[in-house]
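Students often ask why inverse folding is considered easier than folding. One informal answer: many sequences map to the same fold, so there is more than one right answer. In these notes we will look at a single instance of the problem. The structure comes first.
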C-alpha cells in the first residue's frame, strides 16, 4: 500500500511487545538472539499489516538494565539519568524492530514499499503522582547489601539481590500523539512508546525528564486511546490471563468481563508489575471506546487478532 492511498480505511491495531519478544527465558540476550526472537512476532505483524494499520510498542527492562550495569561497572563515565537511558533503548530497540520487520515484509513481497518509522516518545507524568513518594519498581542489576549501601539512590531487597528502585508514575498523555496519528493516517507503521516512554513533567510550556519508568502496558493503552486505535493486543510470554496462575488449578481465560476483571485486580489475581497492568490497560481501553483488547502470547498474535487465541477483555 502506498502511503495515503487506502490507509485511512483500515482498522488500527496496536501491538504491545513484552520483554520476551527480544529475550526469552534462559537466554543470555545476545544481539543475534534478540534479532532472531523478534522475527516471531514481527513475521505475524508483517502479515497483519496487509489488513490493518499498525502501531508497535515495546518494553525495555533488560536493555535499560544493561545500560545501568555498564555505568555501574565504569565509575569514570558520567552517570546518565534514567530518562536518557530510556531514550537510548527507544533508539536501539526501534532499530532492531524496524530492520526485522522490513525483512519479514520482504519475505512476503521483495519489492514492498511499506514505510516504517520509530518515534522517540515522551510521556507526561504528574510531579505529584504518589508513586514519587514511594518508589516501587526495581530496575537494573542486583547488588550485595554492602555494594548497595554505597549507591546514590534507594534500593530494595529482591529475590535476585539488592536493586535500585524508581517511581513508576501513571502516564497522563503521550506528547507525540499528534505526530503518531498523522503518520498512521498516511500509512506508516509506527514504533512508539518504547519502554513505556521517556517520563517527563511539565515546566510551564516546557518538559523536563524525570528519574522514573512508566509501565509500557499502561502507556500503550493511553496511546491507543489518544490516537483512536481499534484493537489493543498485548503480547507476552504466557497465553493470556489465568486464574490460580502457577498452581495445579491454573486455567487461562478466553474471555474476561471488564467489571469482573476489576474485581480480580482488587483481589490480587493479576499482580502489579506483571499481569496486573495488562488487565488494567485492556479494561481502560475497552471502557474508553476501544473495540477489542486481547492479551496473548508472542507466537499467537495473528490468532489473537482473529479471535482464536488469548484472553479477550470484554465490556
Ligand atoms: P512482559 O514483559 O510481557 O510485560 P511480564 O513479566 O511483565 O511480561 O508479565 C507476564 C507475566 O505475568 C507472566 O510471565 C506470568 O508469570 C505473570 N503472571 C502473574 N499472574 C498471572 C496470571 N494471573 N495470569 C497470567 N500470567 C500471570
Ligand atoms: Mg511487564
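Output (designed amino acids):
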Amino acid at each position: 500500500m502506498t502511503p495515503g492511498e487506502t490507509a485511512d480505511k483500515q482498522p488500527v491495531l496496536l501491538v504491545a511487545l513484552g520483554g520476551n519478544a527480544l529475550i526469552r527465558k534462559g537466554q543470555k540476550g545476545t544481539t543475534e538472539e534478540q534479532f532472531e526472537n523478534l522475527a516471531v512476532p514481527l513475521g505475524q505483524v508483517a502479515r497483519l499489516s496487509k489488513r490493518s494499520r499498525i502501531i508497535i510498542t515495546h518494553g525495555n527492562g533488560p536493555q535499560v538494565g544493561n545500560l545501568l550495569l555498564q555505568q555501574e561497572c565504569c565509575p569514570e563515565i558520567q552517570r546518565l539519568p534514567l530518562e536518557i537511558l530510556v531514550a537510548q533503548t527507544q533508539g536501539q530497540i526501534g532499530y532492531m524492530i524496524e530492520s526485522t520487520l522490513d525483512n519479514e515484509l520482504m519475505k512476503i513481497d521483495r519489492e514492498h514499499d511499506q514505510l516504517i518509522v520509530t518515534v522517540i516518545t515522551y510521556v507526561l507524568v504528574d510531579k505529584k503522582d504518589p508513586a514519587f513518594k514511594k518508589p516501587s519498581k526495581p530496575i537494573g542489576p542486583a547488588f550485595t547489601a554492602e555494594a548497595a549501601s554505597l549507591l546514590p539512590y534507594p534500593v530494595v531487597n529482591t529475590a535476585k539481590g539488592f536493586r535500585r528502585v524508581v517511581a513508576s508514575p501513571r502516564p497522563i498523555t503521550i506528547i507525540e500523539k499528534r505526530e503518531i496519528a498523522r503518520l498512521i493516517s498516511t500509512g506508516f507503521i509506527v514504533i512508539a512508546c518504547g519502554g513505556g516512554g521517556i517520563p517527563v513533567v511539565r515546566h510551564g510550556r516546557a518538559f523536563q525528564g524525570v528519574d522514573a519508568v512508566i509501565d509500557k502496558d499502561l502507556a500503550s493503552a493511553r496511546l491507543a486511546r489518544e490516537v483512536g486505535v481499534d484493537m489493543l493486543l498485548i503480547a507476552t510470554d504466557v497465553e493470556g490471563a489465568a486464574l490460580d496462575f502457577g498452581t495445579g488449578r491454573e486455567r487461562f481465560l478466553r474471555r474476561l468481563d471488564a467489571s469482573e476483571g476489576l474485581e480480580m485486580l482488587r483481589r490480587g489475581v493479576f499482580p502489579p508489575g506483571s499481569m496486573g497492568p495488562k488487565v488494567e490497560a485492556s479494561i481502560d481501553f475497552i471502557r474508553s471506546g476501544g473495540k477489542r483488547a486481547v492479551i496473548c502470547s508472542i507466537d499467537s498474535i495473528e490468532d489473537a487478532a482473529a479471535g482464536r487465541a488469548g484472553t479477550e477483555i470484554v465490556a
